[in-house]
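hiii so um. not sure if this is the right channel but i have a protein structure encoded as tokens and i wanna go backwards to a sequence. like what aa goes where. can anyone help
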């Protein structure tokens, strides 16, 4: 962990931007167990399970305002930037406010840290990028060496924010690293942290007794990683600022799981929990708005990040699915 502006024995300050979100809630829960002073910043109040009052500072802020960004990160030794527009990739296509969140916050953050740069080591900034930034993936595992040709506005935003961070790193204002996330899924016990991804969507459909629909024949693969494992990747990054700075690093399990198999497992697990027959898994015609990347398999080779940090996903896929089904079933019943 960086020692910027702290005395020997003083706990480092880690500011988490987007702390109330899906990944943010998991990251703050993981950090609350560590010897750090945790600053959880979000648009809405975010509880931190297990956070000690003397070491946990929960703040609300509109991070599209540069002044509020400056307050949020003042004196921080490390910043974890997890903020993304709540509407996801679909909103980015049509909502002009998406760029202010997806790119504008990084612009503000880099400007603030560049302006406030002191003599001590530059703060570490760990950003949540997306594996989808490359655009259409090749027919092989991706490892981060591929050229980027983003195909959606959301991925253009992600890439633009990542480039801003790399530029600020090259200028010496920060030590920035982008962790490009795979398909993250799971459940966290936080009021504003619902998982809106494909796995949670299918589980909720199965709980409602609705068929699970695929826009393809089910052989398209996704690299699925549980949100708690992803949170541990951000924790691992904090211990290797200089080795990671200036780069983008892919996270993944390295499997590539066929979505048809995942949906059938979800249907089976939900049926067993409810004591009902499994819902069918069927193929349907895709909507015209479906991006081409939805029909291309993704498997991620994260060996570069693993070699630096030692991180790897530890929760097996079926166990992760069982946990997620159990949590969403309980929420569905209340």
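sure thing!! here u go:
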């Amino acid at each position: 962990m960086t020692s910027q502006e702290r005395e020997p024995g003083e706990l480092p300050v880690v500011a988490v931007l987007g702390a109330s979100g899906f990944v943010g809630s998991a990251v703050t829960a993981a950090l609350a167990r560590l010897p750090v002073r945790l600053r959880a910043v979000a648009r809405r109040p975010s509880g931190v399970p297990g956070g000690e009052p003397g070491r946990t500072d929960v703040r609300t802020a509109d991070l599209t305002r540069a002044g509020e960004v400056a307050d949020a990160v003042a004196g921080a030794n490390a910043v974890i930037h997890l903020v993304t527009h709540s509407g996801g990739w679909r909103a980015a296509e049509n909502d002009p406010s998406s760029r202010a969140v997806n790119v504008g916050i990084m612009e503000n953050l880099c400007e603030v840290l560049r302006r406030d740069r002191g003599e001590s080591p530059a703060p570490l900034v760990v950003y949540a990028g997306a594996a989808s930034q490359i655009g259409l993936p090749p027919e092989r595992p991706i490892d981060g060496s591929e050229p980027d040709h983003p195909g959606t506005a959301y991925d253009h935003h992600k890439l633009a924010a990542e480039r801003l961070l790399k530029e600020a790193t090259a200028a010496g204002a920060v030590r920035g690293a982008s962790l490009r996330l795979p398909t993250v899924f799971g459940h966290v016990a936080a009021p504003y942290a619902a998982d809106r991804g494909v796995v949670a969507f299918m589980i909720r459909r199965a709980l409602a007794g609705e068929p699970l629909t695929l826009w393809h024949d089910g052989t398209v693969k996704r690299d699925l990683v549980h949100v708690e494992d992803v949170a541990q990747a951000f924790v691992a990054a904090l211990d290797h600022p200089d080795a990671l700075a200036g780069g983008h690093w892919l996270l993944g399990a390295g499997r590539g799981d066929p979505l048809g198999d995942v949906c059938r497992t979800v249907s089976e697990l939900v049926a067993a929990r409810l004591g009902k027959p499994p819902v069918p898994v069927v193929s349907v015609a895709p909507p015209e708005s479906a991006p081409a990347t939805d029909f291309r398999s993704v498997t991620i080779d994260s060996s570069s990040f693993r070699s630096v940090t030692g991180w790897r996903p530890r929760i097996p896929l079926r166990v992760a699915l069982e946990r997620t089904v159990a949590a969403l079933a309980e929420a569905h019943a209340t």
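oh and Residues 153-170 form the longest helix (18 residues).
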